[in-house]
Every structure is written in C-alpha cells, then in structure tokens.
Design brief:
Layout: H1 35-80, H2 85-96, H3 116-125, H4 139-156, H5 161-170, H6 172-181, H7 187-193, H8 197-210
C-alpha cells in the first residue's frame, strides 16, 4: 500500500455499557416508582375514601336524628296553626336540616330560619312576648312562631303552595309584586319565570320534601 493510498479502517468502536435498569435507591430510569411506594399511595388513597365515606354517613345520621327530634314540634304546632305537619317538617328540613342554632347569611335564625323582625311581628300578633335573637334558637318557640307565620302566608295567598312557600323564602312583598306585574301568569308560571332563582329552587325543594309534585 502506497503512502498516498486510503487510510486504514479504524478498529470497531467499543459499545457503550448497558444502562442499569434500576438506580441506587431502587427507582428505574424510566420513572416507574418502587412497588412499595405505589402500595403506600394506594393504601393512603383508600384510607382517605373510607374516612370521607364515614364522615358522610355520620353527617346524614346526625341530620336524621335532628330531624326526628323536630317531628313532635312540627306536629303539635303545625296542627294548631292548621298546617300539614309534613309541610312544617319540609320547611325545617330545607331551612336548617334540624340544626336549632342555624344562622343564615341574612341573619335568619333557628329551625325555621326566622328573621328577628318577622318573629317580633308574629309574636305581637299572637300576644307573645317579643323574642330576643338568642331566644329564636329555642326549638319550641321557633317552630311555634314559624308555623304561625307560614299559616299567615297561606291565608294571604289563598292556600296556593307555590305562592305562600315562595313568600316564606322571598317575602310576601316580592310575591305580591310579581303577581301585580304579571297578572296573566299562573302561580307556577310566576315561580318558574319571574321569581328569584334561589326562590324557585327553594319552592321545589320544599315541595319535594313535603311529598308534593312540583
């Protein structure tokens, strides 16, 4: 071979060493966690599901017990006011879920969520001493005044459940206004088309809890 001839072929390069499948510590290079870690994650997730489920069940049982304790009051004062006790229970369920110390964002209080001025007005009409704000947490007094107020609304709106249940939520003034502004609409159409969205949902929930078809 002459000096200006083609250079000799290089020798075959060495192959790089194979990459280890598992690094120190046990984790693979392709990102798969250790079996023990995966098991711990699964167990932790399962434990969380069990805790949440137990909380939900306990909460429902607690609400059920609270509502059961309200039935005697709903029956006693509902019948005295000429109301179906099942309707009174439906209002209690939707308003407070039986929590006697419930307070709304607007300041309504107790089992039937009475506003203090409304409670004072109803008490005066019934010749009952005006209750303090804290006295509205008393289940007996709250349901007594709440049923009197609901019965008053029932008479005012001629026993139409769409209207007097809506009035319990939105106030009788709003329901009167809706009727005056839309004289051709039926009570249900007023609730479906004119009432506040919150009031529409409220009427549906109360009627469903009462066992009536909306």
């Amino acid at each position: 071979m002459t000096a200006d001839g083609p250079p000799p072929l290089p020798s075959k390069p060495l192959s790089p060493p194979p990459l280890p499948l598992v690094e120190s510590g046990g984790s693979s290079r392709i990102g798969v966690g250790r079996p023990g870690s995966r098991r711990r994650v699964v167990l932790a997730a399962g434990a969380l599901v069990v805790v949440v489920a137990a909380f939900v069940v306990a909460h429902r049982l607690s609400a059920s017990r609270r509502l059961a304790a309200c039935r005697e009051l709903a029956s006693r004062y509902g019948r005295a006011a000429g109301l179906d006790p099942a309707l009174v229970m439906a209002v209690i369920q939707v308003e407070s879920k039986g929590r006697r110390r419930a307070v709304s964002r607007a300041g309504a209080r107790g089992l039937m969520q009475l506003m203090p001025p409304t409670a004072a007005e109803v008490a005066a009409e019934a010749r009952i001493d005006p209750p303090s704000r804290d006295e509205l947490f008393d289940p007996d007094l709250n349901v007594r005044l709440g049923t009197l107020y609901l019965a008053k609304l029932r008479r005012q709106f001629r026993d139409d459940p769409y209207l007097y249940i809506a009035a319990y939520n939105a106030g009788p003034g709003n329901v009167d206004k809706w009727q005056l502004q839309h004289p051709t609409l039926t009570p249900r159409e007023i609730i479906d088309q004119v009432a506040f969205g919150e009031t529409r949902a409220y009427v549906r929930r109360v009627m469903a809890a009462w066992g009536r078809t909306y």
